[in-house]
Every structure is written in C-alpha cells, then in structure tokens.
Amino acid sequence: MQNILPLHLFEELEAITGSQYLFLDEETRRHYGHDETEDYNFPPSVVVKPGTPEEISAIMKLANEYKIPVVPIGGRTGLSGGALSIHGGIGLSMERFTKIEIDENNLQAIVEPAVITQVFREAAFEKGLFYPPDPSSQGSCTIGGNVAENAGGARALKYGVTKDYVLNLQVVLPNGDIIWTGANTLKNSTGYNLTQLMVGSEGTLGIITKIVMKLLPKNNHNILMLVPFFKSAQACEAVAEIFRAGIVPSALEFMERDAIDWTLRFVDGVSIDIKDEVEAHLLIEVDGNYPDVLFVEAEKIMGVLERFEIDEILFADTEDQKNALWKIRRAVGEAVKSNSVYKEEDTVVPRYELPRLLEGIKDAGWKYGFKSVCYGHAGDGNLHVNIIKGDMTDENWKTEVPKGIREIFELTVSLKGTLSGEHGIGYVQKSYMDIAFTNGHLQLMKGIKRLFDPNNILNPGKVLPDNL
Amino acid sequence: MQNILPLHLFEELEAITGSQYLFLDEETRRHYGHDETEDYNFPPSVVVKPGTPEEISAIMKLANEYKIPVVPIGGRTGLSGGALSIHGGIGLSMERFTKIEIDENNLQAIVEPAVITQVFREAAFEKGLFYPPDPSSQGSCTIGGNVAENAGGARALKYGVTKDYVLNLQVVLPNGDIIWTGANTLKNSTGYNLTQLMVGSEGTLGIITKIVMKLLPKNNHNILMLVPFFKSAQACEAVAEIFRAGIVPSALEFMERDAIDWTLRFVDGVSIDIKDEVEAHLLIEVDGNYPDVLFVEAEKIMGVLERFEIDEILFADTEDQKNALWKIRRAVGEAVKSNSVYKEEDTVVPRYELPRLLEGIKDAGWKYGFKSVCYGHAGDGNLHVNIIKGDMTDENWKTEVPKGIREIFELTVSLKGTLSGEHGIGYVQKSYMDIAFTNGHLQLMKGIKRLFDPNNILNPGKVLPDNL
Lengths: 468, 468
Description:
The structure is a homodimer of 468-residue chains. Chain A has helices at residues 7-17, 26-31, 53-66, 117-126, 143-149, 156-159, 194-198, 232-244, 257-266, 291-305, 319-339, 354-368, 394-414, 433-436, 439-452, and strands at residues 22-23, 46-48, 70-73, 90-93, 100-103, 108-111, 129-130, 166-172, 178-180, 207-214, 216-217, 221-229, 251-256, 280-288, 314-316, 342-348, 371-377, 382-388. Chain A is α+β, with helices and mostly antiparallel strands and 468 residues long.
C-alpha cells in the first residue's frame, strides 16, 4: 500500500466528484480522522464526498490501480475505530447519501447510508411504522454505520439487531462492481447470503450505498420502570428470571451505581434520589398496543422482582419522565468517558451468565489494578465495560490493562459469549480475535477478505489481526 | 472428481464408522438417493452414518485425499434436490445426530441436525418455550436440513425464518476442521458472520453437526379463520391490506381453488362446503397470550376483509377444527403432486406485488401451454407454483416449460423478488441463477465455495450454475 499519493491522483479524483467534494486541508482531514474511539486521530490523506454509487465505483477502480487505501466514513460515532484511516489514503465520506424512501405497501424502506438513525426512525413513525434498532448514539450515528457494525441498542432483546432488519443491500465492491446482494423479500433461499456477510463486516468487504430495511407496524404504548438493587449480582440474576417468567421486555438495561451517579452529575436537569446502599439499577420497559396487557406484564415483572433485595421502583408516568430516564441511560457512555481516560469493551454472553461475567470483570480489575464501570443491555447479555485509567500509572495502563482485557475476553468466550456484541472489532479489538476463533477460522475470514479485496485497499488493518 | 471408488476406501471408511454404519447395497443406496424433488433418484456409491463430528472430520479428510464427493443427507424432504448424490460418492446420512438440549435459563437449545423439526418444537413446548419455524414438512424434515435450506413455513411472516433463530453452529469444514461459527449470544459483532453464510448454503460449505437455536416464551392462544374469496386477485390484494391496518398475523396462507379442491379429495375425513364461484382462500391466524387482544385483532382483520368480495368466513372454534384446517393446508403440496407429473417453483416477492406475480404466472402458463396451481405463504410474498404436466406432450414439457419458468423468475426479479423463498436452489434451479445475479456476483459466490472447498468435494453441482 502506498501512503504518499501521486499528484495526478487528485486530478483524477476531482474529475470523478468535482473539486467541491475533494478536500486536502488539514482541518478537514483531521475532522474525518477520528470517531468516538478513545482519543485516536488518523486523518486520511484526502477526503472525498462522492454523490452516487457510480462515483464510488470509479474511485475504487482508481484506488485499485494505485493500490491506495479507501476508508468509508459515516457518522464517526464508532467505538472500535472502524472508520479511522489508519494507513491514510482516501477518506470516503458517505454524507451525501441521505435519501429515505418508505414503502408503506410492503412495510419496507430504502435508506441511504448517511441517514441519521433517529431521523429514519422518526420518518417511519410518521407513517405509522417502526424501525426498532436504537443504538445509544442514534441522534448522530448513521444507518450505514449501523449496518457496517451490526449495531444493536436497547430494544434488541425483543426486536433484534440491525442485521434482522436488513433485507437487501446495494454495495460497491472493492473492484468497483455495483451489486444488489439479495432481494427485497422477507424470505430468501437463493444462493449464499452475501447480505448477511456484508452486515457487520465493518466496511472491509464493500461500500454500502442503499439499504432495504424491513419495518414493523408501530406500537403505541409502553411502561418504563427504574429498579434500584441493593446488590449488583442480584440485578444481573433478575434479568434471566424475567424472561423465564415468560415476559419479553422491550428494554432491560443495567447500570452500576457509578454509571448512574456520574451520569446524574453530567446531565443537566435530571435528578433521582438514590439510597447509599443501592449498587445497581435495572431500567425495564414493556411495549405494545394494549395498555391493559402492559399492566399485566408489569405486574408479572414486579412479581419476579419481589424475590430480590430492591428499593422502591420508580415508574415513569409521563413522556417527560420517560425521556429523562432514557436520557440518563443514553448519556452513561459519554458521562463515564468524560471522567477519565478509559478503554471500552463490549462484552456479550448468554444472559443467564451475566452474574458470572460481572464477577469476573471485577476480579480482573482487582488483579491488574484497574477500576471498571459497567452498564449496558443486560436483556441480551451485552455488558459495556469501561475501564477507567483514573490514577493508574501510564506504564501499568499500557502493560497491565491489556492483560486484564484478555482475561475478560477469555471469560466471555468460556461462557459461550464473544468479544463484541454491537461495537465491532475494528482497529482496537483485532489483536484479541485469537481468543474467539481458531487460526483456521481466522484464515477463512482472511480468505473472504482476499476474495473480495485482493489488493487489500478497502479499510485495511481492521477486524482481522495483523499477524494473521 | 472420481466416480469409481477404490476398494480400500471402503476399508478406511469402515475403520472410521464401524462396519454397521457403512452400506453398499443397492436398496440402501437408492433409499438415500432421493428426496421429495420430482422423481429424481441419484444413489450415492456408498452410504455412511457417522456418529460424531470427529468421524465426519476423518471422512472429509479421506474424501479430500481421494477427491470423492460427499453429500450430507438429512430428512430427504427437500424440494430442490439439495441432498441428491448427483455425482455419486459418499452419501453422509446424519441420522445419528438426534440430541436436543434445552437451556431454559437462556431460552436457547442445542439441537443436533437429525432432530425432526416437529419433535424439536414439541420438546420446546413442553418447557413452555416456542420454536416458531414450521415448514409444511415439519413432521419429517430435520432441523439440519432446515438450516441448510433456510426453511421458512407458515409463521415466518410474524416470527421470521430458520436463519433468525440460529445463533451459532458447530460445523465440520470440507478440510475436516471442526469449528463453532459464532457465539451463543443474541448480539454479535465479532468478525465476518460465518453463521449466516452457512445457513442456506445447502450443505456445500460445511456439514452442520450442532445448532444453537434461540427460543421464545410460548404463547397460548390463537384464532384461525378460513376466508373464501370470489376473486383470486382480491385475495392477494387483501394480504398487504391486513398488514397496512397494523396487524401482523401469525399465518396468512393463500390457496387457489384447485389446490383446496384437490386436497379435500386427497385428505381423509375433512370436508368444507365451498361455493362454485369461490376462486381462492386465505387461511389467517393471529396468536398471542391474551384472548381479548386476539378478538380485537380478528375484528380489525374482518374490517379489512369487508372491502373485498368474500363469502362467509369459517372460524375454527375447536382444536380439532384448527388441526383440520392446518392438515388441509399442509397437505396441499402432496395432494397437487399426487395428481400429475409436476414441477414446483418457490417464487417470492415483496407481498404487495403478489397480485402482479399471480397474474404473470397465469400469463406464462397461457403462453407456454401449461396449467399451474398456486398456493403458499402469502403473508411473506412466498408463492409456491406447481406446474402441472396434465396432458401436455413430453416434448412441450421439456422445451416449453423451462421457457415459462424463466419468464416467471424474470418477473419475480423485476418485482424485487427472487427465485426461492424457502426451498433453496439445489440441483433443479441452478440454471436460473443468472436471472437473479450478475456474473460478477456469481463469481464471488463461486470464490467462496472454492475458498471453503478447494477440491469441490462437498455436495458438488449444487446452488451454482454449471457453466460458471
């Protein structure tokens, strides 16, 4: 791969997109050089903003000719560094792909990748339809990035993740071919499933230019409750018990005490009284079309919760109260990060194993000298672990923390879980892939990458370990 | 590929499985030489019945050494010829893989591939859990075959298809490696999704030896109604209208008049009075935990149906009546086939396009001189087209019907649908793959096949067109 770009490349890029969509200045390059992953900044050598799949196709052909990296860039809210131009090259900002077309007849939508997730969700709501995936960053992340990372969010336990809504993709392949991966149908048994191979491939196998999404009829009611637990472990245990009682909540979020305390200090205009002895909270939502049914389900949940040591349950009675609780939950990540240098892991296990996972994380912290703040989507066993630098020495941060992370990942895998539930592997987790996969398995993945992208120009250095 | 097997191969196979699991006699070979696809019989040269993944691994290594085809064989209920040993070789019957392990704590199950789908569903029911996919052949098809073909069934419109329940797979790769493709989690963004690449790959990329399935809490109530339409086209139109009214039925099945008439003659002990003017029926089910809610939804559906020309709706009041209606629906395929030589196509389109599809199918029949009987899972746009030979000449059957099928498939693709919704491509549809995919796209699929199986020994001659 070449890092120094030949001058006439810029002329050729300009001929494709027009000069107004080509940027070489440092400010722009640095702007597109970071996402939300720690404090990394890897600026691309040039930023282009193509407007059509055909322009992207021409760019890919050029990049193959010159063997220059191309990194697709979406909302830059990623937490695994998937959009970082770690080898420089062409930063391909997808921001001009913003169309939404809702097909009410088929309960589907054709969405372009730069559409903000929340904008898409609201456009669907307006037509009485529902796009469930709602990553915490929904106000700024894009649908294209959601597909690339197979994003989840708070409603995945009932409604599934991004992959469960993607029916078909228009993709520019690394060689410049433009294909539709599948069909706009709910069922498909026609050839190998390249749609699902593309979802979650973190922009390394193709550039997504259109997404056909399945939609559901909207439901109109929900009940939201915040449950304070005197013991963290019991909050984790309660999660599986609720499902075992036959309830599928629409959200079931876990927050350690520090997570909620730090967030209450970070977020304006929201306050909750919490007893000192409370160690963790569950935020539980049920949703549906029939309020009576929701009351019955809420009662059943309370029946389960009675078996644990909890303080008084807070029910959000108004839309404002609901929004305030969700605002807290969504701000946890940012609040925790604003507190200290940190590393975030996106562990996921079968939900019944959560208490084992939490215990193991705390043990690893004790062993390697770090504090962790845990929160996340407990309903699907997805626990975000924020490892806090605090007053740890730089030396220990560099040498001890990776050992602790490795032990935590080894634990997730031994519990039949894996490294990432919804953030992806990207740049920052690739060196741990050997924990989840055998060498032969990783070689198969590498073979797929090589098949799609023989010159290794599309988002190189992501997902797969370097030493493979 | 070798078709004549060296004698010492049998000795080596015998050393792996033991002689009691090795069969060379013609009767056994012919028994494993057919599935439910038309009247094909392609016997394997030898039938083996391995008992462990390790035995399969040893068999694959042997087959690679001798370049001998291996065809995994499940319940042999397939409709696209996926389990036919078209090049002879080793017929690998999975029938000894019959364990079910239900994990009530995580709402999951580990199922071995030879478990009959209905047996698995009932085992889940007994624990208060629900495995929704229910192909019409559920009484004899196997879970492994369901995964290989990405089977659907009548409940897919609400609950999704097989792929939506597969969390993780233990697979013996063509080179003999045994891997787990993913993790036992509801969310996973860790590397390329080999789980979903394996689902629907029709036994050409690996041999599935264990399946981790997601389960749901069981629901206890449903309402089932049979709706006679005086116009077939209106029955198709009503399908999308029901969804547009905000209802997601748990089943929405379409049957042309011939389909139901032939089935009533074929099935014992069931009778329904149908007016001569009725052209088609919809069988509609809603399900859930709350009978009151189901009555509300049934009322809403009746509100939609009022807009169409229908005869009196038949409500199934008892379990016996429900079973009788489902018995009819499930027997349609067999009944139609018992009537004449036939070819079955598994067309699928976005559901609003169903009336266009049905009209196009009838036009093609008129143009090429064949009669068709259509029925299927209208709720997800999946229409089974049985092309009936009747008194057509052998010559026309051979030359004209394929032209008609090609036109029908071209129509499905132009309507944003595709060739197969749930039966797979297998042996009988592979020559139509160029309609759904560009050559570059098919070359990618072939590249994947080559990557997994460089000697092309695992189920060769399936899915991809011969001339690729």
